[in-house]
Amino acid sequence: MFAKNILLVFKTKDMANKRLDMRNILQLLRLYTQGVSKLQISRQLDLSRNTVKKYIESFHQNSFTYQELSGLSNEDLEELFDGQIKPAPEKNIVLESLFPTIEKELKQVGVTRHLLWEEYREHYPDGYSYSQFCYHYQNWRGKLKPSMHMHHKAGDKVFVDYNGKKLSVIDQSTGELYEVEVFVSVLGASGLTFVEATRTHNKEDFIGSLVKMLDYY
């Protein structure tokens, strides 16, 4: 059961005196994700720097990206930023019991949180909205034993593998559609990524991708 039944998701001290419109919140976050400084955002939107700072800090603490937030309804946004969720222990117990299965399902190719939420609402029509589904899931994950964080030295390791899901391309000369394998490599320290599509993942294609990868890095 969750330690707190009342969740104040995006509440900050100075918000009591200045409640932002949902469009202003999205505009603030859009500018921030585009690299605009907090001072510039404050001036452009006529907000105090403390207000801007608090919203940005809350944004980093939440599990949503800006793209996900921009796709939510005004109702969901209000719940996340200004809403106070009423206690619902029965809902919490039911949803929390599903999280271990949801955690496993999300590791499969093509499975998303939104897809699992739709399945959840089919079985529980009165269940949580998508935003609260994600929020409770993030809280649950935060209680799990954290995995060990790996520190890598620059240039020490590169991780390679093939994507589990094939892609399709069209041969421009013949118009033929055929599937390709996707080779992916990532440098451990910087996260710099190299990706190549090949007809197969046999030895020749694999070695060829490794050569191009090293040349790229």
UniProtKB/TrEMBL annotation:
It comes from the Bacteria. Residues 20-56 form the Resolvase HTH domain. It holds the Pfam family HTH_7. PANTHER family: TRANSPOSASE RV3428C-RELATED. This is Resolvase HTH domain-containing protein. It comes from Flavobacterium lipolyticum.
